[in-house]
Amino acid sequence: MEDRKVMIDVDHVTIRFNLSKQKVDNLKEYLVKLMKRELMFQEFLAVKDVSFKVHQGEAWGLIGVNGSGKSTMLKAISGIMKPYKGTITVNGSVAPLIELGAGFDQEMTARENIFLNGCVLGHSEKFMKEHFEEIVDFADVRDFLDSPLKNYSSGMKARLGFSIATMVKPDILIVDEVLAVGDYKFRQKCERRMKELLDGGTTLLYVSHNIDEVRRLCTHVLWIDKGQAKMQGKMQEVTDAYMAEMKK
Amino acid sequence: MKEEESKLSQYLSEFWKYRDLLKLLVTKNIKLKYRRSFLGYLWSVLNPLMIMVVMTIVFSTMFNRNIENFPVYLFCGQLLFNFMSNSTHQAIFSITGNASLLKKTYVPKYIFTIAKITSGLVDLFFSLGALIIVMLVTHARFTWYALLFPFVLVQLYVFCIGLGLFLAQANVFFKDSQFIYNAVTTAWMYLTPIFYPLEMLPAWLISCIKHFNPMYFYIGQFRDLVYYGRMPGHLIILAGCGTAVAMLLIGMWSFMRSKDRFILYI
């Protein structure tokens, strides 16, 4: 296991977050904050000194209660945020599904959005043309291709977003609780697709509150609690410990 | 030095990778602007034409005597100034307005700023159609020099990208920038000889404008080529190119320096 290529190396990472409060009661407070440079910026450490290594082909689940820093961790790995301290090394192409269809424009049609979103993910227009049919078929939206996206239901948007993001075989797939809105049939379809990708050697990072899904898909689990890594390792041990803690 | 070089080539290859995104964003801006309007793209020509007619009626009574073919004189200045003003006013929101996207996926952030300026440039090309109509209607002289106009637009485009990058990053940290900039562009417009002849002003102001107003460099060159039908002077060309490059460097430097902190403020 150890001789496999390290895909993601998170080394003692701390991530800052801006928690600036919008509420300023009076002029004095305003000036004090201005002097302390807190008006626009108030530091909050969302992730504190977390390290873990993901090897090729592994599927890691990130679990923890709401607000524990899971999504921030994923954002840092996707390159959206830079770590404040520590380093993150990523080897290979990343397909982040932090939110399905980030970059969808509500006024544009689904057809236009497929190209737009594909390019947001770094593909070329030509490449998107080649895979257009595949995406439409998987998302099952052929009848609505030329309606503006604002008329789509959230489930349909999610389907479209998922098909675009997983159309290519990325080296690393990052999924953040995005499938929660899809219907049962589509969730099954997504799980199958992720399994396919995993079998093809893709590395998966998966955030979910659904422990059963994590157990089905993941080989390893990182449990984050209040920004700190509480436990990490093989899926079974960590999920058991997590469930035991949650039931307390 | 080596490191800097590899960093630069990294930026360039990233820009190349996302070039289709830039293209799509520009088409999106243009498409959405006129979607569902009855006359559609025709407005890009009609709108400047209508504004020009209004301004000609208003101002021709004031300055007409000194300026031959006032509509073309006015239009040359107005087209370029409007492009600068509209595109940078759009660009100032290019980071804050795309916050939801920038928080969720990695995209080179400057793409959005460049897309806004480029959409403005496309609009400018539509408006050039209106300029040609006005020139035909007023029997203006056409000379071969006019064909050199892209040279001026390139300078102005580079200048606007630099200014746009600078404003976009400033607005992330300091939301008051957008309001300050409103006042700045209004003053800037009155200090640019768009609808009056430069000679009308007092001597000290003329020399100020000639030395420090970048829009004068571009409008001056453009008028030389299109309106007067002659080659612009060396100094004004040099000033135009120099200012464009300097602004681009300032914009890029300020943007690169602060881009990693955007996410904390948007």
Query: What series of H and E elements makes up the topology of chain B?
Result: HHHHHHHHHHHH
- The overall strand count of chain B is 0
Strand segment tally of chain A: 9
Determine the mean pLDDT of chain B: 90
Structure write-up:
The complex is a heterodimer of chains A (248) and B (266). Chain A has 248 residues and is of the alpha/beta class. Chain A has a domain at 96-169: Helicase, Ruva Protein, domain 3 (Orthogonal Bundle), CATH 1.10.8. In chain A, 38% of the residues lie in helices and 26% in strands. Chain A contains eight helices and nine strands. In chain A, strands 5-6-7-3-8-9 form a six-stranded mixed sheet, sandwiched between helices. The radius of gyration of chain A is 20 Å and the shape is globular. With 266 residues, chain B is mainly α. Chain B has one domain. Chain B contains twelve helices and no strands. In chain B, helix 4 runs antiparallel to helix 6. The mean pLDDT of chain B is 90. The A-B interface holds A 16-18, 40-41, 75, 78-82, 94, 96, 98-99, 102-103, 105, 107-108, 112, 115-116, 119-126 and B 17-18, 20-21, 23-25, 28, 31-32, 35, 100-107, 173, 260, 263-265.
Question: What keyword list fits this structure?
Answer:
heterodimer; A: 248 residues; alpha/beta; Helicase, Ruva Protein, domain 3; 6-stranded mixed sheet; 3-stranded antiparallel sheet; 8 helices; 38% helix; globular; B: 266 residues; mainly alpha; 76% helix
Give a quick precis of the structure.
With 248 residues, chain A is an alpha/beta fold. Chain A has 8 helices and 9 strands.
Topology (elements, then pairings):
The complex is a heterodimer of chains A (248) and B (266).
Chain A: E1 6-18, H1 27-35, E2 43-55, E3 59-63, H2 70-78, E4 85-90, E5 94-97, H3 110-120, H4 125-139, H5 154-166, E6 172-176, H6 184-199, E7 203-207, H7 211-217, E8 220-225, E9 228-234, H8 235-247
Helix pairs in contact in A: 3-4, 3-5, 4-5
Chain B: H1 2-17, H2 19-34, H3 42-63, H4 70-91, H5 99-102, H6 110-137, H7 149-173, H8 177-190, H9 203-212, H10 214-228, H11 234-258, H12 262-265
Helix pairs in contact in B: 2-6, 3-4, 3-6, 4-6, 4-7, 4-10, 6-7, 7-10, 7-11, 10-11
